[in-house]
Amino acid sequence: MEIRQLHYFLMLCNELHFTEAAYKLGISQPTLSQQIKVLEDELGVPLFDRLGKKTVKTEAGNLLEHYAIHIVQQLENAKNAIEDLTNLNTGQLRVAVLPSDLDYRLTALLIDFHKEFPNTKVQVIPSIYTLNNVLENEVDIGVGLAIRPDSRLNRIPFHTETYSLFVTKEHELAEKDIILPADLVNMPLVMYPKGFSGRDLIDTWCASQEIAIDTLMETGSATSLFQLVKAGIGATIQPSQLIDSFQSLGIRAIPIKDSPTRNLEMFYRNDKYLSQSAKAFLNRMETFFRVAVL
User: Fold this and answer.
1) Do 80 and 89 contact (CB within 8 A), yes or no?
2) Nearest-angstrom CA–CA distance, 236 and 145
3) From the CB of residue 222, how many other CB atoms can be counted at a distance below 10 Å?
4) Beta strands in the chain, from DSSP E residues, in sequence order
5) What's the pLDDT tens digit per position in 112-143?
6) pTM of this prediction?
7) Cβ contacts of 126 within 8 Å, gap of 6 or more
8) What is the structure's pLDDT at 196?
9) Labelling 48: which of 75, 103, 203, 291 has CA 20 to 30 A away?
10) What CATH number does residue 118 fall under?
């Protein structure tokens, strides 16, 4: 049994379609079929059932998939550890971050990180599926709202923040010291679309306050939201700390009574080797947000 065959096998487990799996592997379909057949002959059991155009895993296939994932992951860990020994500032770091303000706010951190690790290729991937991205090993680190305890993950809480109402300085409520939840009813708002974690958090909070908000426009871009606020199209409910980034637009952040709060975490698979650059990124994230609130 070869590692290459396990890679082929796992890709087919993912796709359950020989043509698609072969395409993603960059090999021909006959080659993939032949390698799977070799694997099945060696184990003495079928790993897949071919039911017309459908491909499904057998019980043996499910069992092998479980162990193959760990074998391939451990080999990847070994390669990364050896690379760390020989090339401390090279390699790749993949980070899944909730889209919206988080990816926007990381720009300054990424600039500093690049100065320390100039040869590390960093991919910041905006995603509303950060947890799945980490569990599927599509990224090294996930950054987002606090998740439920999961024995497969290491979790690092690093920041808690409240929300404020952001309005133009000409807005009728701009001089208020605090906003009551009832003040938000029937107020034209520009917000992230439903399905974004930040929006879902606000909707859950509104339900707890027995109010409903009225969204006039929705966009997944933090920059666009604040430009819409500047243009007087509507107000927005966002993490209070964002005022530091958008104050130059002539916008004011007004605290909300009994404000919603969000707890931010970094998380990664506990069976995954973390490179020196990945560990440095985790440390810098904690420091970056701690300094930002001082």
Assistant:
1) no
2) 19
3) 23
4) 48-51, 54-57, 92-97, 121-126, 141-145, 153-168, 188-191, 214-218, 236-239, 251-255, 261-269
5) 899 888 888 899 998 888 999 999 889 999 99
6) 0.67
7) 96, 97, 98, 99, 103
8) 86
9) 75
10) 3.40.190.10
Looking up residue 32, the CATH number of its domain turns out to be: 1.10.10.10
pLDDT in tens, 168-193: 999 999 999 999 999 999 999 999 99
Candidates 11, 13, 9; CA nearest to 43 is 9
Domain boundary among 31, 55, 85: 85
Domain of residue 62: give its range.
3-85
DSSP string covering 223-270? HHHHHHHHTTS-BEEEEGGGHHHHGGGTEEEEEBTT--EEEEEEEEET
194 half-sphere exposure, CB direction, 13 A CA radius: 5
Neighbours of 263 (CB within 10 A): 12
**Which of 275, 10, 288, 286 has its CA nearest to residue 140?**
275
CA distance linking residue 128 with residue 171, whole number of Å? 32
Most confident among 64-73, 112-121, 203-212, 282-291 (mean pLDDT): 203-212
* First and final C-alpha spacing in the chain: 56
